[in-house]
Structure formats: structure tokens, C-alpha cells
Amino acid sequence: MTAFRFITISFLAFLLLSPLIKSYLVEVQKPIIVLAQDNSQSILLNKDSAFYKDTYLKNLEQLRNTLNQKFDVKFYGFGKGISENPAINFGEKQSNISSLMDAVYDKFEGQNLGAVILASDGIYNQGSNPLYSNKKLKTTVYSLALGDTMQPRDVLIKKVRSNSIAYLGNTFPIEIDVAAYGYSGSNFVLNVVHNGVTELVQNVSATSTRFTKTVLLNFDAKAKGMQRYSITISRQNSELSYLNNIKDVFIDVIDGRQKILLLANAPHPDLGALKNAIETNQNYEIQIQYANELPTDIRSKLREYSLVILHQLPSTDYSTKSLFDALDKLKIPRLYILGGQSNLSVFYSLNEGLSIGNNRGTNNDALPKLNNDFSLFSLSEETRNTISKFPPLQSPFGTYNAAGDARILFNQQIGATVTDMPLILFTSKNDYKAGIICGEGVWRWRIQEYAQTQSQEASNEVLTKIIQYLSAKDDKRLLRIISSQKTFEENENVLFDAEVYTPSYELTNEPEVSFKVTNEEGKTFDYQFSKSGKTYHLDAGILPVGNYHYTASTVSGGKSETVVGQFTVIPLQAEYTETVANHQLLATLASMHQGKLYYPADMQKIADEINANETIKPVSYAHQRLQDLINLKWIFGLLLFTLSAEWFFRKREGGY
To answer: For 437-479, how does the pLDDT look when each residue is reduced to its tens digit (9 = 90+)?
Structure first.
């Protein structure tokens, strides 16, 4: 009994010292094996299509189960996009191998990635060449070569090249690449149909077994709007597929281009960047001129322009009073780009809705931070994600004060701090619109984006959306339908936004907005816009290929408002254009990553190869943890036992 009491009191005294206990937790992570299956249509475009639909999928599942016994298998299907654990039906209309490899790197970087098994025919029709897009991926790649490397008998339209926009009354070209494999000496008929009327018939004769020819045709733009030209080549017996014998071309015929004047204080890299970005939209024609070249009769020159971009004007070098007097009298929209050569005091006197005080002639590195409440136009989700990676603009240092009715697209982020100072904003005054980019260096956006994504779509979209908004004539309608595109691909959701205004032109979303879509056969589909913030959004889903007309209607201020328009869903035939498997690409890809090329008959050998690979091993992670000894539950149990034992023995001996 004395011993029990001694142990109890001693342990309690020891716990008063707050002792700590150190423990280690060891976690073992299995190697991750990524099994990626090409789910595109080209896999079935060969004589073994029945094999791939049945036996191959069973063998693939067996391989997956075998690997699962020892490894953590992640199964993905890919086509245009990537999905985890999909149902494989070989129905994807595009193939993008490079995006798969990039996604594997992004998802499993820093993890115990043992190997990637790429099951594909090596055909890609979207994204960059996979041999050059995944050099950062440091893991073994095993290629499972599917499809057939033999060219099947087929007649097809390989490619059609044309401008997306033509101008009313002009002649525009359409260039058609036709091919015939295995039909030497045969004759074909090439037809072009527009609005149900045959515009052209041309005979083509195949002079070799692997025959290709480019046919250049010219057509007149006779009607405005989206025009559909259906190009067909006559069918032959024993063709691989008839789906690639027809291709549709959609050309938007418009009245004429809008002219934009880019007026600069001095040569600057921004000028070329702006010109290249704006001219990606063929609706615009841009001219660059410098302030020292302005004519005396400046008003007559400005009349022909829908928008004037003022790069670092007003400046400290030139007097531009006559220029701004003419702009005000003609009420021409303008876009200011402020920089180190801008005269901010003169700019402030123009009363454009922004003042910059306490300027000391220095600049800030201002990153663009998107304002989620901006509603003048919308940016795609891809562009929103890319904007966060844009480099900073050189923005004038100072205290920014924007007018109360200014609409801010981007705020300035200085370092890690997001400020309420605008970087790009829009104002409206005296029957014209004005935009202000508070910084120079948009050329860096385009260079940085191209270095990261090999494209400039995000910077092009930001700049062209700014130009579209400023150059568009004021819309006095109370119901407005907004879409960033007139054509949608057949595997793409048809999306629209809408805005409703009160008679006093205040944005509202109280009334319901209906949307009726009519296809070429006269069948109608009824939709209802959903409310989103102060605006409306509609996702009409995926629609069949064809031309559609729509009618949107609502009631605002007791008055019915209606908007009509049209859009087009274009077909995707990329998987039927190239049907010969590219096993050489798969072999090279595997070799670059210390892997091997296998064929479906040897599929199970991949599991043996991975099991024999000494570099693919489990990884153990040890985590150290410190905790107070008093928090351990068994300590409480021990103390309770010693106290209870002493009480029991004393009770039994009659001590209490």
C-alpha cells in the first residue's frame, strides 16, 4: 500500500514538470502508376475496331487489376480533356496527348510517381507535340501502341482553309485539300453547296495510290451574316469512313471594318503588341501614328476612326490641345495608356474620371488583379486563370481617385498586396466612352504568356474585349444578349449572358428572361436564363451541328423587349482526318523517359516490366511528433489503478 501511494505521488509530481514525449509515425506510400487510355474516335478507325471494343478493354482491366495488387493505380481517359476513372467508349472527337502529360506532371509532382502507361495510337490533333511539351516529367513512360500503321482505303477532305470573316461585296477564297488512298485512276466529284444551292462542281482524278491535291476556289460574299458552305467529295466503295467526305465552312460576312487610330508619343514595344492583338479580330483595321506627325486639320482625319488609342498622350513632349478639342467635338471613344512620358496634370484636366495625386515621376510594378464585380464584358475562365500569371505593368506612382461611376476591370496588386487603386478602368462622359490603362508594358503580357503556354489567347482576349467595348456604339436597348462567340464546336456548351435595364438604364435582374432557339428544320427549343449576380446566364448545353436563330424576350418597365440573333454549331472531324497510327511518336516518347513500346498482344508484359524495375519502390515518410505526457490516456489509467489498488487493499485490511 505504501508502494502504491509512493508511485502515485511521485508520478503526479513528475507530471508537474510538464514532460514531453517524442514519437515517430512512419507512413509507407506505394508507387503511383498512371494508366492513361486514349478515348478518341481514331482508335476504332481500323479493321480491329471489334477487338478494341471488347477484348482489348477486358485485357486493359486485367492489367489494371494486376498492377493494383502492388501499386496505387490511377486510371485516366483523355481526348480533348482529361477525366479520372471514365467509361471508355472511344467517343472523344479530339486528341490532346501533351495536355495529359502536363496534367500528370502538375498532379503528381513531388509524389512517388513510379511510371506512366500511355495507351494511344499516337495521333494528336490538339495541343503541342508531346515530344516537346513534357520534358519536366521525370518518370518512366511505357507506350502501349494502338491502332493501325497501314493506310486504309479512303477518300477524304483533309483540310479546308478560309478566312473566318469576309466583307459584303468582296470575293473570298476557300482552299481545299483532298486526298484519295488506294483509288489510283478513279474520278471524284467535288461539290460546294451554299444555302441549299450548288455553287460549284469540279471533277478530280486520282493519279496515284496516295493522291493529294489542293483546290483553290473563289466565292462572292453576297449576303450578310453567318454563311455555311458544305463541301463534299463523292463516295467510293470500301472506304474506311464516309464521315470525312464532307466538311462545313462557316464564314461571317459583315459590312466593313472599323478603323482604329493608335496615336503614340514615341516608338514603344506596346505599339506592336497592341496592333498584333487587335488585328486578331478581323473586324478592326488599326493604324499607328506619332504625335509629331499630326496634320493641321486634325478633325477631318479623326472622323474616319471608331476609336483612338492614346499611348502616353497627353505627354510632356507635345502640345495636344487641338487633338483633344477635336476628339471632344467628334465625341470619339478613346483609350488612354499612361506611362513615364504621360503629362498627368494635363490628363487630370481632361476630367476623364481618374486623377493621380502625389506623383513623383516614379513608377510601381503593378500586377493585374481581376475585379469580380466587373460586368461590362466577361472573360473566359481560361483567360481569368492566365491573368494571374501576367507580369506587372509600369504604373505611375501616386494616389489614385476614380470617379464614382467608373467601372474597374483590374485593380493594382503591388507585391503581395491587393490595393483599391485601378489598373484598367472605364468611364462614360458626354456621349462617349473612355478607357484608361494605368501603366505601360502590355507587350510583356504577350511575351510571358507565349513562354508559358505557346499562345497569346488570354492577352488577345483582354485587349480585344477592351477595344470591342469602347468602339461599340451605345446600346440603348433594355435587353442585351452577350456572347463572346458566334460559332460553337459540336462538343462545346452553347453559352450566353444577358443584361436587363430599367427605363432609367439601371441594371436589374428582377424580370425573367426567356430564350427560344430555332434550328434549320424549324424546330424550336425553349430555355430560361438563370439569374447570376445582377445579370443572367444561360447554358444551353451541347447542340447538333447547324445554324440556329434565337429570340430572347423579357418585360422591363411594363414594356416587352425582344432581341433576335443567330449562332452556328460547327462539326469536329479531326479524328477522321488523320487515321494512320503514329507508333514512331510513341516509341520516341517512351525512349525519352527510359521506357519501352508495347503492343496490345504483350500488354501484360508491362506489369512484369514495372515489377522488375528497381527504381519503382515504395517510399517511407517519417513524421516526428511532440506531445505532453499528461495527455496520454494510459497515464490516467495507471494513476487510477494505483489509487484504486491502495483503496482496495486498505479497505480489505480494515485500514479505513
So the answer is: 999 999 999 999 999 888 899 999 999 999 988 987 766 788 9
Its CATH architecture, for the domain 479-570, is: Sandwich (2.60)
pLDDT band at 317 (very low <50, low <70, confident <90, very high): confident
Pick the CATH number of 259-471 from 3.90.226.10, 3.40.50.880, 3.40.190.10, 3.40.50.980: 3.40.50.880
Q: Give the distance, in angstroms, between the CA of residue 207 and the centroid of all CA atoms in the same chain.
A: 43
Distance CA 309, CA 288 (A): 9
Question: In angstroms, rounded to a whole number, what is the distance separating the alpha carbons of residues 420 and 278?
Answer: 28
Q: Do domains 154-255 and 259-471 have the same CATH topology?
A: no
Cα–Cα distance measured from residue 433 to residue 407, given in angstroms and rounded to the nearest whole number = 11
Cα of first residue to Cα of last residue in the chain, in angstroms, is 13
Helix (H), strand (E) at residue 218 = strand 210-220
pTM for the whole thing?
Answer: 0.59
Mean pLDDT of all residues in 422-427: 95
User: What is the residue type of 491?
Assistant: N
Sequence-distant (≥ 6) Cβ neighbours of residue 349 within 8 angstroms? none
Cα 120–chain centre separation: 24
CB-count burial class (<10 Å; 0-12, 13-18, 19+) for 637: exposed
Query: pLDDT at residue 432 above 90?
Result: no
Does the domain spanning 31-150+580-617 belong to CATH 3.30.420.40?
no
User: Residue 178 has which C-alpha cell?
Assistant: 483532298
Residue spans per domain, the chain: 2-27+621-653, 31-150+580-617, 154-255, 259-471, 479-570
**Spatial distance between the Cα atoms of 543 and 493, rounded to a whole number of angstroms:** 8
| Dihedral, CA of residue 402, residue 408, residue 410 and residue 413, to nearest 10 | 40
The cell numbers describing 561, all together, are: 423587349
Q: Tell me phi and psi for residue 460, to 5 degrees.
A: -60, -45
Q: Which residues pair with 370 in a beta bridge?
A: 410
Rounded to whole angstroms, the Cα distance separating 129 from 445 reads: 24
Residue 448 phi, psi dihedral angles, 5° rounding: -65, -40
* CATH node for 154-255: 2.60.40.10
Cell matching residue 163: 478566312
Residue 1 has pLDDT above 80, yes or no: no
Phi and psi (nearest 5°) for 372? Answer: -70, -15
| Element of type H or E holding 66 | helix 55-68
Record the cell numbers describing residue 184, joined without a space.
489510283
Return d(Cα 651, Cα 4) in angstroms, integer. Answer: 14
Q: What is the DSSP letter of 386?
A: H
Beta bridge partners of residue 20, listed in sequence order? 628
Strands 32-38 and 113-120: parallel
Could you tell me the CA-to-CA distances from 538 to 61, 283, 382, 546 in Å, in that order?
Answer: 40, 26, 19, 19
C-alpha to C-alpha distance for 131 and 134, rounded to whole angstroms: 7
What size, in residues, is the chain? 656
Q: Closest Cα to residue 36, out of 142, 125, 148?
A: 142
User: What single DSSP character describes residue 472?
Assistant: S
Residue 154: which H helix or E strand, with range?
Answer: strand 154-162
Q: How many CB atoms lie within 10 A of CB 389?
A: 13
Please report the DSSP string for 579-643 in residue order. -S--HHHHHHHHHHTT--EE-GGGTTHHHHHHHH-TT---EEEEEEEEEEGGG-HHHHHHHHHHH
Name 148's Cβ contacts closer than 8 Å, sequence gap at least 6. 46, 47, 48, 580, 581
Can you read off the three cell numbers belonging to residue 407? 467601372
Q: Residue 394: its pLDDT value, please? A: 94
DSSP-assigned letter for residue 153 = P
